[in-house]
Amino acid sequence: MNATIDLLSRHRSVRKFKDKPVDDALFHTVVKAAQCASTSSHVQAYTIIRVQDKDNRRQIADLAGPQLWVEQAPIFLVFCADLTRLESACDRHGIAPEKGWAEQFVVATVDTALLAQNLMIAAESLGLGGVFIGGIRNDPKMVCELLNIPDTAYPVFGMCLGYPDQTPTIKPRLPLDLVLREDFFSGPKSKKDRTDSLSAYDQTCKGYYLSRDSNLKDQTWSRQMANFMGKVSRPHMKSFLKKRGFFLK
Ligand SMILES: Cc1cc2nc3c(=O)[nH]c(=O)nc-3n(C[C@H](O)[C@H](O)[C@H](O)COP(=O)(O)O)c2cc1C
Predict the structure, then answer these.
(1) Is the pTM for the entire model greater than 0.85?
(2) What's the average pLDDT block by block, 10 residues per block, for the chain (249 residues)?
(3) Which of 61, 85, 80 is closest to 155 using CA atoms?
């Protein structure tokens, strides 16, 4: 083990923060470290909005759940997948941009996620904690209106950051044999082995949910996923993205 592996292994989402501001210089260090993430063809197709305005914070906290921590965290960021600069680069060189391709949507979204994960890790390495907020996609149109996000960008998720005022139990992850395959997706391991492995993981998660510090529940991982996959989530996303010119072809 080394310090990086140790840091990654200690990750847990933090939703309760000390009433202690985060120094601007430290925050900027974290953002710069985040920018070092790999980026497809060096496009860096993202923009981060730090939301300080109290009214906007409250409205975003409400539409995201409500999720109180969005309002209360010392820092709240909205991560946008953003093609604006790339279109400006086209203008600069007199090239008409190809617009609306699904591939551009994937590139910008993946770039944004890599940036955000780097940001979370950099923040954790400096004693901060945080949580991603997909809840902003409950009403992405409103988020765009509140934050003046242009049609060439879209809000992928938010993130709360601050000094942790809680130390949640670390959530167990799937066993390696379920997420890592050798050479082929379908390998020599029998379906039964995988089923046994999943059952064992269900029991591990059940133990975690029954013994963690808050929000105790009697739930297995597969039951939770079945509930998740069994209901429609944010059906407005397709038309929202299309209206913004993403994902047209
Ligand atoms: C893209 C994304 C969106 C998320 N959205 C929310 C959210 O809206 N609210 C929240 O409390 N947690 C949110 N989470 C946190 C996950 O619930 C959490 O990462 C997951 O349960 C694993 O727990 P851990 O981060 O403590 O290991 C989100 C995580 C990701 C990656």
Answers:
(1) yes
(2) 97 98 98 98 98 98 98 98 97 96 96 98 98 98 98 98 97 95 82 90 96 92 97 97 89
(3) 80
